[in-house]
């Protein structure tokens, strides 16, 4: 709808847009539901009927059509194709091994730049939950128009509480960009703060959460990557040159394992902000990165008259004076009696029992299991 | 050892002794470990390496040798024979359908009486935990000698707390019986009391718990059964007459389904006590009827430096700040994080999560599942 009101040159910006979905990370805080072999993005964690990656793809469709690239691990090729049957092989970029976000997003930028140097890419992680999608899409449209003016544009999430689990974006002055009335300069990115500092950010009002979403000309992304991570840039460029040729396999096998592991924040976003090249669109939508089982509780409405949220097709749960979350990935009968704020995740080979309060510590259990050799269930 | 000191006529009493083990009841408060198809007595609930029925049989062996009869449901024939491979078919009495304790114990009494009217039977449920066994055996020896003088002799358990879950026995005057210095008359059996009343019993000192154990001449048992439940007595007598003949099957099928369901306490013990025919030997041993999962916690020592008791062969449990009981009947990894006094029972088709405090309510869950048609897991 908003699109209708933009000018011809705006439409040009929109036609240059290409969605990129980095689909990585095992989501260890969601073990045993989320696994190395079945990570977070392959699950329907909201009870919507769609997996997170499918919902992410669908959210980009009105903006990008079929111009959406997914970057994921070779292990997930089959599952991703099953979730996104319409994706072409050109748009499915498989990582030989995990190399962190700078390599994943940088590879997408380099391949897209090789195909068309005018592309404006928009990178959105595969495992986030956003609602309403129309508000998100309007923000991305503003971001595309801002990016077309030569910015790396992040979308800042309005904080709802003084979270210590996210990085923050400090907004600077407003930018005067046609069709992007909410665009502002980014003064700086700041690391995950202490709770006191986070409270200050909330009071201040110019801070938003960094959800890792950004929209930018691929050329500008690569320029900053080259300046900050020249080795990574050189490697990705060489891979991108070979990507759409018969040499892809040979070049990837030779170079990918040698690439440095670093986050896109350090490799591009923070230095670009320091150089004044980063802008921000505030996102007035609800956003959740489904970081732990407490988030799953928030995202799944409880059935009427009960404090117990049950997820899982065909779940057979009997409860009496119980509250919390049950994720049933089996057809077993689960009986809960007299237990409060519990988190139960029941899968065929592993069972987690904890509380909402301890949901963040699930990661430790996974680390322990890894150390003790119980890798069959990770 | 005690036996050596008894006289010839005492030995005669001992040679008349026949152990009877009623093995019934599904132990619904121990669901989903205990099931209709795999009741409490078929499990090793103490971590001893023996199932409860095996331990019960072994406890009677020094007293009865191979003169031990088991009364159980046809459903459990195979499992009982597996647990007690030495049992002869003559000593395995199968109930066509459950008919409560008066029919089960009465049938054993009637069959034994038919085979030898001088038998003194000792009935001990298959699902109790007793230690030390020598103290139990000494009490039974006193009970046998007292029974030989024409008493139905119960063994009273010294109460350790004002339980509202057991019936009580009020002891009367001491009896003067050779070789049974602790024998006393029983003034009355009293029903499960309120907590206040139970506290009074403890202070009074003449009350003990009724563990349902008794030793009695089969003729005396049958006499009281005939007086109080003539229909039941007549039916059991007809079945017993046919039992060791080719007519057993036909007679059982015709009569068993028509028998009234009642407890041995009402059919024999209470009226016999009123008639002055019941005596009591105090049992100075530790006794547990493993009534719920809290009992399983008591009976299984925790591993060093942990408040978490884990039962189950090959259990794979990871815990962090967790206490309570885990019963693992699968090979699944179970991770517990930050949860106190929890009770987790993990079986292939059903999972129970509750707390020690709510352990008694498990029965309700089973009733609910039955009502809702989830009988596949009961």
UniProtKB/TrEMBL annotation, chains A, B:
Domain MannoseP isomerase/GMP-like beta-helix residues, every copy: 322-369
GO molecular function: mannose-1-phosphate guanylyltransferase (GTP) activity
Key words, A-Z: Nucleotidyltransferase, Transferase
Single GO biological process annotation from the record: GDP-mannose biosynthetic process
Keyword Translocase: no
Domain Nucleotidyl transferase stretches: 19-303
Name this polypeptide is given: Mannose-1-phosphate guanylyltransferase RfbM
Source organism per UniProt: Arthrobacter saudimassiliensis
